[in-house]
Amino acid sequence: MKQQTLLTTLCLLLFLAAGCAPKTVTPSTNTLIQQAVAATLAAMPAETQAPPPTPFPSPTPFSLVGLFCEYQFCIGHPTDVAFFDVSAQQNPASPSTYSQGLIAAFNGNLFIQVMWQIAPGTADPKFLFDTLLDDALDTPSGNLDVFLTRNMNVVYDNITSIATAALPAGGAGAWTCGDRVFAWKVYTPQADTTRALFDEALARFTCGQ
Fold first, then answer.
1. Which of 10, 45, 51, 141 lies 20 to 30 A from 151 at CA?
2. CA–CA separation, 176 vs 198, rounded Å?
3. What one-character DSSP code corresponds to residue 126?
4. CA 79 → CA 65, 82, 193, distances in Å?
5. How far apart are CA 17 and CA 38, in angstroms?
6. Contact 110, 200 (CB under 8 A)
7. Does residue 81 contact residue 66 with C-beta atoms inside 8 Å?
8. Which pLDDT tens digit goes with each residue over 139-153?
9. DSSP per-residue codes, 169-189
10. What is the pTM assigned to this prediction?
11. What is the pLDDT of residues 80-126, one digit of tens each?
């Protein structure tokens, strides 16, 4: 009788312990993006040297200076920064792909992010614009500019950010191209440079159409 009581007590304790075990929670896309941004901004004080220029046969059809081409798209960027794969940095087993990805570029005076997601048939890129903005750090001006360029639906707005005190101004935009939606965000010291950076990036953007 005592053995049966002891066995019952042990089973009850094991059941209660199992019920108190922590549950695995899958982080949301926004959480993963915020973690990636935080990790990238934390590394900003350590500036990386720009790689030496790669020689190319002459003549070339276009300049490769300030142009990132990978994942079947190209996008312009300032010549003193270079994009790297944030997704691969966070998880080497899960780098960016054609279907989705996150890249960033930075130096002491500039932070740029670009993300993309496959979304066949989507005409409004605003959802990815909202995803890239961090509600805890970024505040849009509320003057969303919506326009069409080269058959791409585009949205853009200036933002302010508390992500880092050195870069309080910024801008963000998103656009459609083929079966994907792209979003872009920049942090800068002054607000008067953000729209020009976006327009330059978009002017040199292609996605294989």
1. 141
2. 15
3. H
4. 6, 7, 15
5. 35
6. no
7. no
8. 999 999 999 999 999
9. EEEEEEEEETTEEEEEEEEES
10. 0.74
11. 999 999 999 989 999 999 999 999 999 989 999 999 999 999 999 99
